[in-house]
Amino acid sequence: MRKYRKTIFAITIVIAIIILLGLITVIIAPKTLVDTTYDIIILIVSSISIALAIYSEIGFNRESRRVEKMVKQIEEMRKNVDNDMAIDKNVRYKLDKIIALDEQIYKKVGGRKKPNDLVKEAKATEAKTSKS
Prior knowledge:
mainly alpha, 0% strand, rod-shaped
């Protein structure tokens, strides 16, 4: 970054010196007042266009670096998402295995009771304890 800024600064100073020398040359040259005025106007317009080009290049460079950083961050996020998806897939697979084993155990032990049966058992147990 510093090297780029120093280079742009050096180029800007060289262009400014060249424009200043051109302006002095135009003023000193043995021409009529109208020719000198036209030359000065042309020199000023060209120097403004050069300054705008340098300014836009500096802005473009900053913007391209910012976009490059954002692209790197997006790529890192994509990698993280891919890793998370792989982990999620493995966890789901293991959970499905656990659920399948759980179902097998319940079938071997005597099957799962339905919620209605559990409620009926709870009421019956409660009724027995309240009678005693």
